[in-house]
C-alpha cells in the first residue's frame, strides 16, 4: 500500500483561497446601483454558430456611474449581443446605436436590494461550506498519516490546530466580503 503524501498546510490554504476568489467572482456578477463591466461577465452570446462569452465579441466599458457601453466588433453580431443581454435576466435593456449598445443601469428598488442581499448570503454560505469541506479533507489526511505512523499524535494536534486557524481566518474573510457586498447592495 502506498504511503500517504506528506501534509502541507499550504495546499489546503490555496484551496481555501480559491473559495474566496470564487466568492469575489460571484459577487462581481451581482448588480448594485452602480454600473460595473463585470456585471456582463456571465453573459454568453450565440454568434458564429457557437456560444461565446460576451467579451470575445465586444469590448465592455463603463463611461459613467449608471451606464455600461458595449462596443460590438462585428455588425452581424449586434442583434445576438442585444438578445443575450436582454435574456440574461439582469433587468437590463440595451439601447442599440450602430455597433454600440448603451445599457443604462436602473436604480434598484428596496425589494430588489433585499433579494440581491439574500443571493449574496447564499453565495457566501456556499463558500463557507467549501472551506469547511477543505478543513475536513485536511483533518482526514492528518488522521490517516497518524494511523499509518507518518506523524506523531502531537504533530497531528499541532497541524490540526493550524488547519482550524486557517479555516477560521478564511471564514472571517468570507464574512467580511459578504458584509462589504451587502452594504454596497443596500446603499441607495
TrEMBL record:
<dbReference type="Pfam" id="PF01765">
    <property type="entry name" value="RRF"/>
</dbReference>
<keyword id="KW-0963">Cytoplasm</keyword>
<dbReference type="InterPro" id="IPR002661">
    <property type="entry name" value="Ribosome_recyc_fac"/>
</dbReference>
<dbReference type="GO" id="GO:0005829">
    <property type="term" value="C:cytosol"/>
</dbReference>
<dbReference type="GO" id="GO:0043023">
    <property type="term" value="F:ribosomal large subunit binding"/>
</dbReference>
<feature type="domain" description="Ribosome recycling factor">
    <location>
        <begin position="23"/>
        <end position="186"/>
    </location>
</feature>
<dbReference type="InterPro" id="IPR023584">
    <property type="entry name" value="Ribosome_recyc_fac_dom"/>
</dbReference>
<dbReference type="InterPro" id="IPR036191">
    <property type="entry name" value="RRF_sf"/>
</dbReference>
<comment type="function">
    <text>Responsible for the release of ribosomes from messenger RNA at the termination of protein biosynthesis. May increase the efficiency of translation by recycling ribosomes from one round of translation to another.</text>
</comment>
<keyword id="KW-0648">Protein biosynthesis</keyword>
<protein>
    <recommendedName>
        <fullName>Ribosome-recycling factor</fullName>
    </recommendedName>
</protein>
<feature type="region of interest" description="Disordered">
    <location>
        <begin position="147"/>
        <end position="170"/>
    </location>
</feature>
<comment type="similarity">
    <text>Belongs to the RRF family.</text>
</comment>
<dbReference type="GO" id="GO:0002184">
    <property type="term" value="P:cytoplasmic translational termination"/>
</dbReference>
